[in-house]
Amino acid sequence: MAQKNDPYKFKKVISIGIVSELTGLSPRQIRYYEERKLIFPERSKGIRKYSFADVERLMEIADKREEGVTTREIRNEMTKEVREKMLKGQMNAHFHFRS
């Protein structure tokens, strides 16, 4: 997964057509994953823009779907990961730890 020290990975500059070519997913599949709250593209004048981190995430989602994992399970896993990162950050701030 992208690291915070790779800021280019997080810039939302890639169109859905390019994302489709890079991932092998159809634009409809990509929009579906957005509807299911698995990815969060930026929108400007009705045009979706994705980052390289989004592309990586979509490829992870596609792999999991091929393994039979449901979108609900993927979203629950994402939520759990976010909660764990937040808790770790709060604990680090409270106890002045550095990771």
From TrEMBL:
CDD domains: HTH_GlnR-like
InterPro entries per the UniProt record, alphabetical: DNA-bd_dom_put_sf, MerR-type_HTH_dom, MerR_fam
One Pfam family this sequence matches: MerR_1
Keyword DNA-binding tagged: yes
Domain of life: Bacteria
Molecular functions per Gene Ontology: DNA binding; DNA-binding transcription factor activity
Keyword field: DNA-binding, Repressor, Transcription, Transcription regulation
Keyword Transcription: yes
Signal sequence annotation: none
Domain HTH merR-type: 13-80
PANTHER family, alphabetized: HTH-TYPE TRANSCRIPTIONAL REGULATOR TNRA, REDOX-CYCLING DRUG-SENSING TRANSCRIPTIONAL ACTIVATOR SOXR
Full protein name: MerR-like DNA binding protein
Originating species: Paranoxybacillus vitaminiphilus
